[in-house]
Design a protein that fits this description.
The protein has 215 residues and is of the alpha/beta class. Helix content is 27%, strand content 34%. It folds into two domains: 104 residues, ATPase, nucleotide binding domain (Nucleotidyltransferase, domain 5); 84 residues, Nucleotidyltransferase, domain 5 (2-Layer Sandwich). The chain contains five helices and nine strands.
Length: 215
């Protein structure tokens, strides 16, 4: 899935952290057209927000884990855009952003202490990471890793999965929410300093391999 958003960040009164306002966002489910759709989607989001590209003060990109082609296209485009605009490009783990949104999805679970985020890694495997929570802020304690669903185990307060079918696939148990990364969560983490190097988290070798005759 391709997520493109434009947000405005400002500090809360009293130094209580950043406020992120989503100006425009779009999601594209067709993973096979990321390369063709990414730049037009960025331009459409900027136009919808009523600003110019020159107004952009920074670029945030999800660093995965994810499939080889999707990460490569998204991250290369983000770095090229930041370079062209003369602004900084920072990375955020995509699973971290999903964890932030997972806690928002269960506002009544105010005492949630643990979150497990699982996404579809294909090849009958899932990417996953485990978080501890304090004050509604997830802190990574294990992962990211890639494993068969049945090997993703443990009891947690919140179990975030890509769709309802994954609830039965994984060995872990908890209050189930369906989650995906959002532009607001990525920006919130970036503004709050929860960033990583702009390096793709592949976690395994790409599907495409060099033919033996060419090695």
């Amino acid at each position: 899935m391709l997520v493109v958003g434009l947000v405005r960040a400002s500090d809360m009164p009293g130094g209580r952290g950043p406020v992120v306002e989503v100006l425009a966002t779009r999601e594209i489910e067709d993973c096979r057209q990321h390369n063709e759709l990414l730049v037009p989607t960025v331009l459409a989001v900027v136009a919808e927000a009523g600003v110019q590209l020159d107004d952009v003060a920074g670029v945030v990109v999800g660093c995965g884990p994810g499939p080889f082609t999707g990460l490569r296209v998204g991250m290369a485009s983000a770095m090229a855009l930041a370079d062209a605009l003369g602004v900084e490009c920072v990375g955020v783990r995509s699973l971290d952003a999903i964890a932030v949104d997972a806690l928002r999805g269960v506002p009544d679970v105010v005492d949630a202490r643990s979150v497990l985020v699982v996404t579809d890694a294909r090849r009958r495997e899932g990417y996953w990471a485990r978080y501890e929570c304090g004050g509604g802020v997830p802190r990574l304690v294990e992962g990211p890793e890639v494993s068969p669903p049945a090997e993703i185990v443990g009891d947690v307060d919140v179990l975030c999965v890509p769709d309802g079918a994954w609830e039965q696939k994984v060995g872990a148990r908890g209050r189930v929410v369906v989650g995906r990364p959002s532009a607001s969560a990525l920006a919130e983490l970036a503004v709050g300093g929860v960033t990583v190097d702009v390096v793709p988290l592949y976690l395994r070798r790409p599907d495409a391999q060099v033919p033996k005759a060419m090695r």
